[in-house]
Request: fold
Amino acid sequence: MSQYKQQAIAQEEETPASTPPSNNTAGSQSTESNDYLTYENSTYRIKISYPSTWKVVNVSNANDSRFIKIIAFDSPDENAGIGVWTDNSPGNETIDTYLAEDIQNYRQNPDYPNFTLISSDTKNTMFAGIPGYELLFSYANNDTTRLSKEIGTILGDKACSVVYDSVLSQYSINEPVLNPMIDSLVINVPKSNQTGIFNPTGGNATASQRSSTSEIIPEI
Reply:
């Protein structure tokens, strides 16, 4: 999946964290507890909180792209980033086959040299209120080792994921902001796109649970 994600981004523009990106609804500048701001995108029907010290990165995607990067956030030191993705055509895959395809595409993607799978899970991960997947891996980038964690699920005829990427030395420092962001994520899925297991009583879903599997972080 990642090889298509790389092709999906035409450009990225950094904007101040207090400036609401395009497609945001009113109220995105209001602060929440712990100095978190709210990003809301009416086009993709998502809402997520992010630290006020992080930078909002607007992204432009190819019109015919299967994978769309909705929004991204960079840490103050720019050594870590978090992106929210949607897959417009996951097909009829199960979570297990979707994750297997994802891992294979990372392995084949030249943008992730020395790809090393650290952990993967589809049994203990919940995302947006339904069973999901989690993937943790390392790779090399300009002689620097990076760690990347992807958490997502399939929602009806689409899929959604949150990807956290960081230089290895800063992974543990910036990771604490990831879980609150995932927990705050709200996805408004039209009823026509919902499956029987996805929030059958309404259109809102929250990512209220995460994987309980342990992670082994490589030594620096």
The chain has a mean pLDDT of 77. Residues 95-108 form the longest helix (14 residues). The CA atoms of residues 125 and 211 lie 4 Å apart.
